[in-house]
Amino acid sequence: MKIAIPTPSQPFYPSEGLAALSATLRAYPTLLRIYWARTLEYRVQIVIWILSGAVPLVMLAVWLSLAQEGPIGSFDVGTFVGYYLAAIFLRRMTGVWIIWDLERDIRTGGLGARLLRPLHPLHYDLARTVASRPFQALLVGPPIALVLYLYPGPQLDLSLINLIRVMGATFMAMLLEFFFQYAIGLTAFWTSQAVAIHEVWFFIKSLGSGYVIPLALMPEGIQRLLEWTPFPLLLSFPLEMMLGRLPSEQIVRGFVGQGLWLLLAITLITFLWRLGIRRYEAFGA
Amino acid sequence: MPAIEVLHLRKHYRVHEKAPGLTGSLQAFFRRRYRVIHAVEDISFTIEAGEVVGFLGPNGAGKTTTLKILAGLLHPTAGEARVLGFIPQRRERAFLRQITLVMGQKQQLLWDLPAMETFLLNQAVYGIPEVEFRRTLNELVELLDLEGLLTKQVRKLSLGERMKCELAAALLHSPRVLFLDEPTIGLDVTMQARIRDFIREYNRRAGATVLLTSHYMADVAALCRRVLVIHRGHLLYDGDLEALAERVTPYRIVRVTMAQPIPMSALTPFGEVLSLNSHRAELRVPRARTAEVAAALLNALPVTDLAVEEPSVEEVIRRVFAEATPLEPELAAQWPTPLGETGLEARARE
Asked: ipTM of the assembly?
């Protein structure tokens, strides 16, 4: 018996880049399925993470006691309930947890094995990130929906068009967070402090994305400042849209902003990757 | 076209040094001191398609560095490497699809899932058509005896089982060139033999080129007719393993068993007596005189059994390094080692 080594019979593509893109896209269904299976292996861990993400509930309790006297800014009791419950859900949908693995892979040389396969290492992490969404949605979605249904106050804009918009903005927010986190992870090519850098990013993001305090309740100056950063687009944008609080011109501006920041993040990654991988190849981490 | 061509390859690293302890850390924080490591120094060799070549050398000799350069993970500092006509560090898809690097100490299998999932992932990543995938998989399952292992979670497999699955995962895309870095490390003797048989069989069936490093001489002796001996980044020897044995260990071991105990004095005329245990003895005899001595032994003594053996590969390699060690890198660099003539050959002429 003889193992036939086939000559790679690749379909013809005008460029290496297109061939790579096509091969990458064809690999995605399997990548997603396998990382979905892996997510299920970690189900208990994920449940614990979710339970430990109680910040919005604490904040909600604080605001509710303050709002007993009357609305705070444009927020009454019902708005607060809707805001923080939706925040919990959208946080599950936009949160990304790749920095630790990426940093370790770069620092300890584990990246090598992935570099030797004909698929950019980023795609494993992206597929893993996307594949963990359905499980989290199934876990967190129903109880939140139930509470929102039973609690009479909160007003969500549940029209079909708005739900589609929110889903789009949420997915974009997840991509944005993914690419920024990946860029931070790539600093591990130069420094052993990538995780520390991410801590700073995470802290600013918690405040700047409306996760802890609704941006609408922040001082005007800070709101103006945040408009120049990607942070509001990471959570506040889809969140306020879900509550039906955004006029259409702000919705358009949000999507355009997400697109531009995504472009910037991808450019940044391309740049860091090229420089970093050269260093990796020189030192052989 | 040769499968692997390496010409005057060099790899130097700059590493920073730090004295131990807090003071050392502080010093290193303010002023880093660097040292250049010459991992590979001017190595040249060519490997033809279908060859199985052993890469020998002590830890830190530059074996893994060379393999990583050939697989495309490291940029050479100077010199050239070609694998299947590709420049490895460009890592073109067509190149990556035809090679594999297995590192005994690193793993690619997804830890929490059955190995089959990693295989399917590789099928997608390498774009292996279904029919071809099934055929290769069946062959690997048969050759490596993987039946029943593929559906078990990887973390529940034994080290040997995992290594077999690693090998299978690394070969699903039917690579033409295999770089194996310590593929049998940590495995028991039976499993080592099993992996060894597999590599031999894979090479025979697929005609793949194999370059392997191993600490276990048995691996090398069993698989490779040709060896590259590397030490401190220099290539000391490139050629036939047997020829190397003849050159550096110009003797054979003759084992005799006598009908009755005999005194040491009766043996000394025949050669250097390595051991004498009442009626069993081991003698070291010059290669050229082996037959003569054996005949003389049979004539003169009440021999019931006689065997002639080659010195072990460990012994051969120990000798190569023993000769090379006094040479400092600077000195060794002056050693004439043009392609086709190894340092040893050059020395042998002197």
From this structure: 0.84
